[in-house]
Design a protein that fits this description.
binds iron/sulfur cluster, globular, 10 helices, single chain, 12 strands, binds S-adenosylmethionine, about 30% helix, about 325 residues, TIM Barrel
Length: about 325
């Protein structure tokens, strides 16, 4: 079992299989980065899988494939199948912008994927164009329909932003509710890569909007999930991710691996250690030692909120959010 210095069990690995993306979301990657990691620097799926096996053997129970946009990476279904075949009980999920989901959802479920989180910040084509800087909404919604049709469990992530999509919070919630998909509102996390003008809604502002229409109860937290849950009268639950809150990191159970092999203890900070050389040499023990060291050095909490609040210099498209 992997336990950090604050007695948190670390059993969740998020793997960013590429930092590249077909969107340019204002809060994540408004401009194409100065340079991409060259393709030859990416770990192959076979190499990533070597690390996945170590992580599972050390106690990881949940793996999420993310990016950048994970569906841009060829043969992703084969990587999913490798993980599934090694440990079919693993909680295997993916986060995607859904643009390329139509036509691939069946392959993903056949490979062993169980769940997918899809980012839907708006239901208006012109706002989707403004946020992603590309006309994406039609493909995204068709992708979601197909994922549901083939039987993937779909959750939606929405980042509410003032003067952009704050007026659509209820519409997006209703869209999800009608399809039996849960929704998580993610507070915008300030980072140096995002467009400077963005102002995210904090959870109290979001709740005030929702209270005008719905009655709901505060259900608190559920296991190690970072979502604060609320239950509406008809039983529908929604979640809010509140990284600015003091106790957000108390139950953090996750570490992140980039496509180059950097193992990152916290989404907020720049610190990382590489498993790349160990994996390339076939040094399983060496990679396992790096894993344990990264878990040991997991910081107690991020610095988005509180007195020492700062803007993070870590790119979301690199860590996978
Ligand atoms: N491309 C995929 C997608 O958009 O779903 C996966 C990668 S994306 C980095 C993962 C999640 O991070 C998305 O739900 C996105 O909305 C969220 N995200 C990106 N930048 C963010 C920011 N600055 N604050 C809050 N959430 C952010
Ligand atoms: Fe791409 Fe996802 Fe970042 Fe948007 S949030 S730019 S879709 S990685």
């Amino acid at each position: 079992m992997l336990i950090d210095s604050y007695d948190r069990v670390v059993d969740y690995l998020r793997i960013s299989v590429t930092e590249r993306c077909n969107f340019r979301c204002q809060y994540c990657m408004p401009e194409k980065p100065f340079s991409w990691v060259p393709k030859e620097n990416l770990l192959t799926f076979e190499e990533l899988f070597e690390f996945v096996k170590i992580a599972i053997d050390e106690g990881v129970k949940k793996i999420r494939i993310t990016g950048g946009e994970p569906l841009l990476r060829e043969d992703l279904d084969k990587f999913i199948k490798m993980i599934y075949d090694y440990e079919p009980t693993i909680d295997l999920a993916m986060t995607s912008n859904a643009y390329l989901l139509k036509g691939t959802a069946q392959k993903l479920i056949d490979a062993g994927l169980k769940r997918i989180n899809v980012s839907i910040d708006t239901l208006k084509p012109e706002i989707a164009l403004e946020i992603a800087q590309k006309d994406v909404l039609k493909n995204v919604l068709e992708g979601v329909d197909e994922a549901l049709k083939v039987g993937l469990k779909v959750k939606v992530n929405m980042v509410p932003m003032k003067s952009i999509n704050a007026d659509e919070i209820i519409d997006v919630l209703e869209y999800c509710k009608a399809r039996n998909m849960s929704i998580r509102f993610i507070e915008y996390m300030e980072n140096s890569f995002a467009k400077k003008e963005i102002k995210g809604l904090k959870s109290n502002e979001l709740l005030a909007i929702l209270k005008e229409k719905y009655e709901f109860e505060d259900e608190g937290f559920d296991g190690a999930s970072p979502s604060h849950y609320y239950k509406m009268k008809d039983g529908y639950r929604f979640g809010i991710i509140e990284p600015y809150e003091d106790d957000f990191c108390k139950k953090c159970n996750r570490i992140r691996l980039t496509a180059e092999g950097q193992l990152i203890p916290c989404l907020y900070f720049d610190e990382a250690m590489s498993i790349r050389e160990s994996i390339k040499r076939g040094d399983i023990k060496g990679a396992a030692l790096v894993l344990k060291e990264v878990v040991r050095t997991k910081p107690e909490k991020n610095r988005w909120g509180g007195e020492d609040a700062e803007v993070s210099k870590r790119a979301f498209y690199e860590t996978g959010g």
